[in-house]
Amino acid sequence: MNQINKHRASVDLPELEFNPIFFEQAKRFAAQIADNPHMREQLTREEEQNGNYSKAIIAQTGANSVSGCTGFSAAINLDPTTGVVEAMIRNSCKNVIESRNANTIGGAVFQNSNTGDYFYVTFIGRI
Asked: Which of 10, 25, 68, 74 pairs as cysteine with 91 (C-beta 3.0–4.6 A)?
């Protein structure tokens, strides 16, 4: 929060106060879309071969198809569907899931230092 307020001061914006309730809500949404309270999900080789990773992503985002590796949404209500699917579908790294190189679904919460809005990023990759 100190770093955020330093940045805001440098661009003549008023100081922000930390909102723990909204931050916890943002974390819950990020965990929900990752389907894992620890912010990531490691799939087994069998689950990966069965395509369960793409089924999980489709179920969580409401997408018709899955092609891409990163999606994000920045909205006041942190709706896990709005914007995430579109970003994942048009992403340049389409072959990550199709090539079965991905076995991880995750999410993280960030705060925009200019607006103070919390947003989450979901990612698909290999760890």
From this structure: 68
Report the distance separating Cα 69 and Cα 99, nearest Å. 12
**Model's pTM, two decimal places?**
0.30
How many residues does the structure list for the chain? Answer: 127
User: What DSSP string runs through the chain?
Assistant: -HHHHHHHHHTT-PPPPP-HHHHHHHHHHHHHHHT-TTSEEEPPHHHHHHTHHHHHHHHHH--SS---SEEEE--TT--SSTTHHHHHHT-S-THHHHTT---EEEEEEEE-TTT--EEEEEEEE--
- Summarised one tens digit per residue, pLDDT across range 44-53 is 566 556 666 5
Alpha carbon distance 121, 102 (integer Å): 16
